[in-house]
């Protein structure tokens, strides 16, 4: 999907949907192109539900109105200009929905993005969804660690196994595919013959590392090299997600970002996505 629209501007994108019974539009303003494609365009073209402004929309039901526009300025610029015009005219405007102002002057890309060309690859969307869940895993952990109801047991992530269990449970709530550990023969002196999580239908393996402090920088780098050799033997591999939980405690977490990208091991090509959580 990104390849089809690679010449489009990165900023600012606005999406709105409205059904006959709705009093107001559900609107997402100031999205960048990557976020727009990941959260709205790809799932829509794959006929999967999307979430916009807290509302779940099913493309199969075809809302009465759906629009995607691009502007050269963020929503706030349009709101400020509108408010200034109203003040100069002595008008107190409480009726205008400021979220919708970009749609009056933006370039409309609704048809090109949502309805033209072949349908999107569903597995590509679901791969993006898995990566987003990995990125947001600490936010899920915060909710369970600070439960407000008296007497309820909390769940704290203190090591790799806690993080694995939380990720496994969260992904099962999102995906209709089997999410499990996958046995792989040990190679390259690797300590384990299992990926933390495998999703065969989308060709994805997830290896989770927990950073206990700055001293883990070297260990995790070494384990990454071993994991590439190990998991390249999995016949379904398309994407290896290398999730580093508690990455803020590393000496230089950003150094791991350079490991993301295309890799080839023993003739097998796959993509590596390093997620710092």
- What characterizes the major β-sheet? 6 strands, mixed
Strand content: 15-25%
Based on DSSP secondary structure assignment, what is the total number of beta strands?
A: 12
Which strand order do you get reading across the main beta sheet? Answer: 7-8-9-10-12-11
State the share of residues found in helices, binned by percent.
25-40%
Give the overall pLDDT as a whole number: 86
Q: State the secondary-structure class.
A: alpha+beta
* Rg over alpha carbons: 22 Å
Please state the overall shape, judged from the principal axes of the Cα atoms: globular
Order of helices and strands: EEHEEEHHEHHHHEEEHEEE
What ranges have pLDDT less than 50 throughout 5 or more consecutive residues? 186-190
The DSSP helix count reads 8
- The separation of the N and C termini measures 26 Å
Helix and strand layout, with pairings?
Elements: E1 13-18, E2 26-31, H1 33-45, E3 50-52, E4 55-57, E5 65-70, H2 75-88, H3 102-105, E6 107-108, H4 110-114, H5 122-135, H6 137-145, H7 160-174, E7 180-183, E8 194-199, E9 204-210, H8 216-231, E10 239-245, E11 261-265, E12 268-276
Parallel strand pairs: 9-10, 10-12
Antiparallel strand pairs: 1-2, 1-5, 3-4, 5-6, 7-8, 8-9, 11-12
Helix pairs in contact: 1-5, 5-7
């Amino acid at each position: 999907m990104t390849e089809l629209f690679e010449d489009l501007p990165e900023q600012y994108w606005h999406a709105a949907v409205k059904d006959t019974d709705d009093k107001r539009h559900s609107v997402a303003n100031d999205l960048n192109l990557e976020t727009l494609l990941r959260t709205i365009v790809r799932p829509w073209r794959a006929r999967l539900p999307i979430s916009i402004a807290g509302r779940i929309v099913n493309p199969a039901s075809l809302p009465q109105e759906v629009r995607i526009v691009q502007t050269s300025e963020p929503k706030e610029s349009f709101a400020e200009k509108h408010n200034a015009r109203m003040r100069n005219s002595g008008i107190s405007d409480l009726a205008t929905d400021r979220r919708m102002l970009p749609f009056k002057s933006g370039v409309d890309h609704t048809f090109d993005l949502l309805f033209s060309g072949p349908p999107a690859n569903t597995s590509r969307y679901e791969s993006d969804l898995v990566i987003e869940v990995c990125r947001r895993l600490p936010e899920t952990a915060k909710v369970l660690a600070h439960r407000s109801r008296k007497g309820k047991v909390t769940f704290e992530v203190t090591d790799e196994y806690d993080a694995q269990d939380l990720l496994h449970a969260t992904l099962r709530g999102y995906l209709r595919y089997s999410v499990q550990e996958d046995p792989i023969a040990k190679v390259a002196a690797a300590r384990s013959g299992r990926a933390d999580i495998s999703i065969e239908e989308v060709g994805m393996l997830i290896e989770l590392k927990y950073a206990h402090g700055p001293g883990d920088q070297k260990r995790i780098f070494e384990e990454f090299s071993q994991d590439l050799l190990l998991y390249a033997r999995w016949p379904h591999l398309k994407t290896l997600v290398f999730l580093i939980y508690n990455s803020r405690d590393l000496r230089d977490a950003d150094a791991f970002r350079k490991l993301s990208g295309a890799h080839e091991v023993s003739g097998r090509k796959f993509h590596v996505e390093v997620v710092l959580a």
